[in-house]
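W.,

You were right to be curious about this one. When I first looked at the sequence I had no strong expectations either way, so I just let the prediction run and decided to look at it fresh. Below is the sequence, 126 residues in total, followed by the output.
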Amino acid sequence: MNAAKIPGPVDGKDPAALRTIGEVANALGIRQHVLRYWEEHFPTLSPLVRAGGRRYYRPEDIALIIEIDRLLHREGYTIKGAKQALRAVKNAALTPAPIPPAFLTDTALAPALLALRNRLAAALDD
């Protein structure tokens, strides 16, 4: 991944700002049609959809996309298996996925993602 394509100060936005599907696709190297397909199959992935059907992803949506991508493309899960794994994470408080190193090179975005990861892990522990 090219560091210039990672959301954060590089694109002039606050790390907590909403991102368009194009920005997310470029940052993560995932095609836009794949993100739309995942929305159909993973109900917890639900970006804000504004007038005209324009999608806006929140930081927690991006974290979920990173997890789905890891399960499908790095761990070799099927869609059905990935859904089950995500449910298991939610129900059994498993360790969240590591944040990709490319995101950690963005000094403003990394703390926000780490804070989100820690909040998710704490919520799963409750």
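Here's what jumped out at me. The helical segments are 21-28, 32-41, 59-74, 79-92, 101-104, 109-125. And, maybe more interesting for your project: The first strand starts at residue 19 and ends at 20.

Coffee later to discuss?

I.
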